[in-house]
Structures are given as structure tokens and as C-alpha cells.
Amino acid sequence: MTxxxxxxxxxxALGGSMMRVIAILFCVFSLTSHAREIEKxxxxxxxxxxxxxxxxxxxxxxxxxxFGMDFRVYVAGLYLTKKATASSEVLNSETPKVLAMQFLRGxxxxxLTEAWEEGYxxxxxxxxxxxxxxxxxxxxxxxxxxxxxxxxxTFTKDKVHVELDGKKEKKNGDVxxxxxxxxxxxxxxxxxxxxxxxxxxxxTGK
Length: 206
Hints:
By secondary structure, the protein is of the alpha+beta class. The protein has six helices and nine strands. α3 packs across α5. It is globular and about 40 Å long.
């Protein structure tokens, strides 16, 4: 083999190796850096819950119209075992679901409990009376929150697990009840959500 042919063969081999390295690095960064951003808050594409891998189904911004203005309240990401766009499919599924939230402003405990009660009473249907005690147990876990506070709701078949990083304290606890678990999730994606845009954002399915 001449020197020219040898040099060409080396360059081709090196070039092939470099292409493979670049391809591998691209895959690695694609797998590790995926997150969806809304209002400068990142939601990872996957989340592990009780041995199950959940995928991010959609994100949404909750706003409150008051005094003629829209105030940003919190952002949320909905995690499911598989992508879905129909609220009925999500609500009737017995697989784990997670709603991850981050507040964008400070709110008092009373404001939070009033908001949950209002949303719950609009969506609990025939289960309102039977789950009144469950809602009280849920609201007892509330506390004052600040800008940046995180709120994690894990919905399983028979209960809701609550994790709230409040302004001065952290609250964790379980609220038992299959009917309550379904009705509480309906607050966000049921027939009367905070807004249709909010519901649509969580049910993007992409």
C-alpha cells in the first residue's frame, strides 16, 4: 500500500470513529437532558413511582383572574404510565399518576384550602357527601406556601399521597379512599377544571 492510500485509509477509519462518538454523545445528551420548561420551571420527562416509570403527559400554567388581571399561581406537570389525551381514560385508570406542581407566588393555607374545596365541589359529583371527611383530611395537610414551593400529589387506586414543601414546614401524608383519589384528580382534568387551557395542557399527550 502506498503512503497516500495508507493515509487515506487512516483518515477514513478515524472519521468513522469520530462519527460514532458524535452519535453516541448525541444519544446520551438526548436521554439525560430532556425536560419540558414552562414559566422557567423544568419538568423531567420521566418519574419513578413505586417501581413504575411514569412519563410526562403535559404541563400547564394555572392563572387566576382578579382585579382585571391574570395572576400566575402555579405550574403543573401530569405524569402517567402511558400518554393520554382523554380525561375519562386517565380518571378511570387504576395505574399510578403524579401531579407535580410548583407555586409561582406565595399563598396562605386558607387560600389554598378554599381553592381546593371550590374545585373539589365542582367535580366530585355523587361522591361529594361520602368524601367530605377525606377532603378535610387533605386540607389538614395544607400549609402556607411561597414562590418556589413544590407540591406533589401521587394518585393510586385507593389513596392520594401528599408531599408539600411549605413556607416554613413540610407536610407529608396519605388520604385514603378510591373515590376521593379519583375526585381530587378531577379537580385538575375533570368536567370543570381551573380552565380549559389548563386541562388541555396537562392532557397534551406529547
